[in-house]
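Fold sample X.
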Amino acid sequence: MEKKKILALILCLFVMTLMTACSSSNEPAADESQDVQQTAEEEQSEGFTGDMIISAEDAAALIGNEDVIFVDCTGEANKGTVKGAVATTWQELCTCSEEYGNPGDEKWGKIPEAADLSSRLGALGLDKNKQIITLGHTLKGWGEDARIAWELRAAGYKNVKIVDGGIDALFDAGAEKQSGASDPVPCEVTVDSIDMSHVMETSELAANFDQYKIVDVRTDAEYNGATKYGEANGGHIKGAVFVPYLDFFQEDGTLKTNDEITELFESQGVSKTDKVVAYCTGGIRSAYAQIILEMCGFENTYNYDQSYWNWCVDNEVE
């Protein structure tokens, strides 16, 4: 009888030990649980994601790839650029020559006609069959890389990306530097038509003004009346909300997260279902705004390419 009690006790202890082991294997230890939580928080704090944004690290890995063309849009390629990059400026790909007048004139600062743009892009060697990666400055620039990427997409390019953090982030990621831009290899480029899906024109905005939520992405000084770039009048488009371009970025020049940027616009009353028109001085910073708004899920977004330069000549401002 005593032996049976001892055996029963041993069996009970064995079962309890087994249950404790199983419980331990199924439940993470305190430090492991903390690691899981930290990983989740890191995932939530990762940078901006979208089909037209590429990280500096991923872009650096593509340098030298024959199917990728890097385009320095900074206007400073003579000071040094990424190895193999060709160079241009947003003005060179827009109607900004003397024949179109001056900033603010009716035809100045727009996307060129399809045939004209075909010629310009072909001379620059921007093969439609290759991936195009545009480089600019973020905190110390106007978003020139986004303006050119925005225009290339309107011209029918399917694989265009902007480096998150710009050219400086690319150098920080280890990209090799060269003195001056590479000579382009001209190619045949055919732009059948300009896709106006994300382009706003003065005539349309003036005719249907009340249908749009208008966002000014310039600086506080410009919004409040400073004429820093030869504008005909100071101020801003009547009723425009203010979301500064520089607020899109973190201190290191990379974009804030999608959620943070969404909150930035929604806090100013901009809804994802609104028809949103972004503008700046000449449609450069606002091109960046249009692209990131679209990638954040705002359904109907437009870049007003002639922007305040043109609007303030003949239309109401405040």
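Fold sample Y, listed below.
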Amino acid sequence: MIIKNQFSPNYSKKQRKKKNIRFIIIHYTGMQSKIVSIKRLLSLKHKVSCHFLIDRKGEILRMVKENRVAWHAGKSKWKNFNNLNKNSIGIELVNKGHQLGYEKFTNYQINALIKLCLKLKKKYKIENSNILGHSDIAPMRKQDPGEKFPWKRLKRKKLGIWYNSLKVNSREINNKKITKLFFRNLYKIGYRYFHLNKRSKKDIYIIKAFQRRFLQSRVTGLIDKKTYIISHLLANKNKI
């Protein structure tokens, strides 16, 4: 695996300990091209960066050293962690994103990403439940890497989480309880930015973030039975 260097000035100067690196966060660039994306990530004005960028040909660019904090996650939460920059490695995939013409990720990109993530997972002993998308940790404001990102393919390489089956006894599901149970499941999985016992109009962003990852053909923001069942399987480690 060949990794080229083009270092960004946008990072926290204090070194971090290896044990503090607990997450891999996957993004898309959401910009018109690789050139424009790199320009932004190098810009002192914009103050954003990542550890690695992977272009559509599968070429990997290191932009911040792993022992430094890159500025990629922003305001974010997962499990008991807040503001995940300090505990994560950020990987950007070149893709125009939802605003400019969202593209399917290339095989070259995903193959390179898998090799890189396997290396990082082993090096930092990162749990599968901590390999995440930007929308998982910042669902109120982010959609990336989006519903075209192949999470199931990553799981086949033992990266991230996925569910094993959709078989469930329908008698166990009470429609009146689905919403409450769904958010309990999401909390167990690691999602935040919602109240366990009080619903909000903003909950739709959480539901869509979950669907973008686990029910990509149905990003409706509605908790139907299939959405609930998937949350149940994930929260209970695929057991019914």
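Sample Y note: The two ends are 40 Å apart (CA to CA).
Also: The first strand starts at residue 3 and ends at 5.
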